[in-house]
Structure formats: C-alpha cells, structure tokens
Amino acid sequence: MQKLEELLEWGGTKRDIAFLVISGSALLLSIFGVSLLPFDMAWIAIILCGIPIILEAVIGLVTAFDIKTDVLVSIALVASVIIGEDFAAGEVAFIMQLGALLEDLTVAKARAGIEKLVHLTPRTARRISAAAAGNQAAGTEEIIPAEQVQVGDLLCVLPGEAVPVDGVIVSGETSVNQAVMTGESLPVDKKPGDTVSSGTVNQFGAFEMRAEKVGEDSSIQRMIRLVQSADAGKAKIVGIADRWATWIVIIALTAAALTWLISGEIIRAVTILVVFCPCALVLATPTAIMAAIGNATKHGFLVREGDALERLSSVKRITFDKTGTLTYGTPQVTAVESIRPDISARELYAYAAGSELNSEHPLGKAVVRCYRTETGDAPLTPDKFYMLPGRGVRAAIRGKTVLAGNPELLRENHIQLPDEVAYKTETHLKEGCTVIYLTVDGLCAGFIALADTLRQDASDAVDELKASGVTPVLLTGDHENAALHIARQLHIDEVHANCLPEDKLSWIDASQKDRLPVCMIGDGINDAPALKKALVGIAMGKVGSDIAVDAADIALVNDDIRELPHLLKLSRRMMNTIRLNLTFSMALNFAAIILAITGILNPVVGALVHNAGSVVVIVNSAFLLGWKKQN
Asked: Exactly one of 321, 523, 527, 559 is catalytic; which is it?
C-alpha cells in the first residue's frame, strides 16, 4: 500500500498538468473519431486520469474505510468500461482529475515557519568564570553552545548579540530590543536587577547576566512550543463533496441497482452512475476559491492556504497587533517644546540632534533621523560626546553643555525638573510617548516626545470592518497607555495591552471556544503563535518578520490595510458563489438522474450533460476575478 501512495505522489502538480493536457487532446480526437492507436483514444484519459482515482479510492477504503467521491467515480469508470462506453469513462476521469488539480493548487505547501523560529534561537553563549564577574579582563571567558548553559551561570552579552537564555542583569546597563517577545516598537532600557529574555537583542553596551531559565524553559523555546501547539489545534475544512460523499455513493448505487432491476437495462444503471459523478460538485469550491485568490492578489494579498478565504468569511472578531500593523513600527518625533525664552524650539531640536549624533541608542538615532527629515539640515557636530547607558547622553555643542536623557540623568546632575515641564509631558506620557528631557548649561530647556505613528487610513479601515459586522480588538504587547491612545484614535472599544505571546494565544483560544471565530492580524515574531491559533492569520508582508508571514494563512504584501475590508467582503462573496455552484450542481445531478432512469440519457450524453454543468460552474466562479466591493 505504501508503494501505491508513493506512485500517486510521483511528479506532483507538474505530472497532473501533463496528464490532463495529454488526456484532453486524446478525448478531442476520440470525439471526432480520430484514432492514432489500435484502440479508442479515450483510453489514454482512462489510464492517465482514471487509474490514479481508482488507486486513491482503493487506498482510502482499505486503509481507513474512508468513502470519498473517488469511490463513486471509480465505480462509474469501471462500469462504463465494462459496457464499452470508453468515451464516457475517459471524460469523467478527465473532469475529476481537473477538479483534483484545482484543489491541490489552492492548498499551501509545507511551510518552514517553525524551522525559522528554531534558527532564531541563540546558538552560543559567552560564559565567564565567577572570579571574573564584573571584571572581564581579569578572568576567563569561553564560548559554549547555548544548550549547555546551566541555571546560575554568569554570561556576558555584547552589543548586537541575542540574549542566549532568560536571566537577570548583574552588571552593566543597556537597551534591549524586545520585539521578538512583546512586539514593543521602542527598545527598553535595562539595568542591574532587570530581567532579560532569550532571543531578545542587546542594542548597545555589554552586560553580565545570571542565567535563570535555560533549555526548554527559556522564552524562545516556549514560543516554539506555542506555535507548534497552535498549528496542531487548527482544524482544516473538509471539502463539501467529500463531506457528502457517503450519501452520494449510497443514493447513486441504490438508484442504479433499482433501475437495473426494474428496467432490466444495465446501460440505464451505468448512465445513472455516470451522471451522478459529482464533477460539478467537486469543481464548485476550488474554482471559486482560485478566482477569489486571483482577485485578492490584485489587491495586494498573497493567500497561502487554500481554505483561508472560506474560513475568513465566518470570522466574528478581527484582532490587531499594534506595532507595525496599525502603526508604522518606528519611533517618530511628535513634539519639541522649549521652556527657555532664549532658546527656540527649533534651536532645542538642533541641540538634541547634535547631542544624539554619535549615540548608539535607537531613540537617539530616531531623533537624528527625524531632525534630518523634518528640517533638511545636518545635525550639529558635538565637540565632546559621552554615552551614559541607562540615562542618556552628554555633549558639548558650540560651547554649551547639553544633556539629553531621562529624569534620573537630571537628578544625578542636580538639575530640577520644572513643574511646567512635568505638566506638559504628562499628556504625552499618557499617550504612550517616550520623553527625552533636555538641559543646556545646567538648566532644563524643554523636552522631545517620541511615539509610534498611526498608519494612514487605519481609522477608515477599522470603521469599515466594524460596519461589516465584525468586532475589532487591539491585542498588543505594548504598554497600556500607548495601546489606549491608539484604540481611541481608531474607535476600538476592546483593548488588551502588555500581552505576551501566550496571552494572545489564550485570548484567541477562549474567544473561539465561545464560538466567536477570530482573524488575527500581526507582523512580529511574537505574533506567530496567535497567527497560527486564529481561524485566519494575516501577516503584514512588507514589514512583517519571515516567521510571522510563514505562520499566517494570508500575507498583505504591501501593508496597505485599506484593503482589509475588501478581503473580508470578497470572502463572503466567494462563499455565496460556492453555495450557488453547489445548489446548481446538485439540481443538475438530480435532473440528469431522472432522465437517465427514464432512458432519455445514455452514458455519453449523460457525460456531456454533467460536463456542461462543470463549465457553468467554472464560468460562474470566474466572475469573482473582477469583483469589486460596493462602497
């Protein structure tokens, strides 16, 4: 039996296409009575397209007593050949093989998302001896495989390196990009006593840490297990024809047997089997799906799972990650305010950009980038520059001493934060902004606020989705203030902030158990488990991580979220087309079976009738290619 399965898998899609081309040509020659061989050319279609169907039916029945549509097709093929109706047998085999090919083309191939997550796991760690802790130069350092790290080991993490295991910083200050775990748009400053997670990236400044969770207990390994479990728990939609296959086989065999017994004409019984072959029924779903996928492609969507649009039509909730999905995912300067009458806001901005020019901190780089973009000027070049990890920077610019950093930097330099500044920054902090305080020559001069910015048309897209009857939900690892600020702008009522990957997974699981199917839209590695678990996962293809795209069913290639309402409405339109196709197919089959019972149809004419039905189904599905939503 295993050899039979290997034979069926040989060649895959290319083989099927070649067999269909050859079989179709042979059937055309058979219609016109042309024979290049000593037997009817229809036999080529029977052999190339029919035998694989018969083998599939035998394997299904023998190994699992699984009755699918190929059982009835096999019976009709054999019966047609027995009574000499070779063309009918070849035509049925050709149509069924065409339907199978279309279904195969709508099913995504095996993906490498979990494999990429595994590759994301840090491979090595820098272990230092206890005697050298806090004094690297005096001790030894060895590079070991990350899986050999033990709880309690002291490790050194250099700038740009991934944290190998979960642990606590014991010395050094830095900023860590935690997007892999939380999706936060801004890096997080870390100091001794703070925890760090495996897979997150050290931005600058070496630090020493003590390992606390290693191996399978580490955060990145937990993420891998979440993705695997979510994928295993997602049920696949079974084809309509195969769901009804048992009843179709029973009805067809019963009708054929009774007709043969009553009329005594075996040709009527065979005709019933031929006309009842669910060719149009098999084509009803895959043709509509392929046409809808073609439409979606024109609107910037890459549909990676064949039944994704079918599932999307039934969702009740659409959950959004914030950073990189509803926002651009890069910090932007949103406000520059000076409280000194002798320093204008533009001058303060120039001092800030100059002081951050040589900074390795992501926020400092953002200030410089925004200054260049907004003013068109080059930042002032500092005469002196000092990096103060965990606090900010100090620079000498045009004879003035400039400090740029957090309130702790001001306290260490005995600079009082004026009430006016505290009051003005309170609003920005509540909106989830990060504030950089600025002093010039020992006096507070003002501040700069940075925040992630909302995508254009995000509000219109969310409003249109709400009008379509789905509930938008914000599910983010970012801080509550930032999440609530974005939610208010987009009129999203349900917000869940500070979510780790397992929190998103649990919320989606609970929602779907309450019969509220979820579509998850995200872009980050931390979204991968949720994208897998949701009934439909949509990843931002342009800014999204490869792992998020691999975990999703659909990728939005150009990140234009204005197209999301079109995709939702397209999926519903596709389902209406499928229902219409199915209704027509079944009605045609029952009408044909009545004509076959009365002897009006013979096997060849019957085959042509249900072939015409297949053409009608394909044409109806093709209208989806040019469908546009009505505003």
From this structure: 321
Residue 555 identity (one-letter amino acid): A
Sequential DSSP letters for 324-346: IIIEEEEEEEEEEEE--TTS-HH
Q: List, in sequence order, every residue forming a beta bridge with 404; answer none if it has no partner.
A: 393, 438
DSSP state of 50: I
Strand duo 201-204 + 317-320: pairing: unpaired
Spatial contact of 272 and 248, defined as CB atoms under 8 Å apart? no
Give the three-state DSSP class for 469: coil
For residues 437 and 406, the answer to whether their CB atoms sit within 8 Å is yes
How many residues appear in the chain? 631
Helices (H), 139-182: 179-182
Q: SS3 for 266-329, per residue?
A: HHHHHHHHHHCCCHHHHHHHHHHHHHHHHHHHHCCEEECCCCHHHHHCCCCEEEECHHHHHEEE
Structure tokens at 503: 């929190």
Q: Which residues contact 270 (CB under 8 A, 6 or more apart)?
A: 76, 79, 80, 82, 83, 85, 256, 603
Q: By mean pLDDT, which of 118-132, 388-402, 496-510, 552-566 is the weakest? A: 118-132
CA atoms within 13 A on the CB side of 208: 16
Q: If you average pLDDT over every residue of the chain, what do you get?
A: 81
Count other Cβ atoms within 10 Å, centred on residue 613: 25
Q: In sequence order, which ranges of 195-265 are alpha helices (DSSP H)?
A: 219-232, 240-243, 245-263
Average pLDDT over residues 140-168: 89
Tokens representing residue 263 in the block: 């009329």
What pTM was computed for the model?
Answer: 0.66
Question: Any catalytic annotation for residue 104?
Answer: no
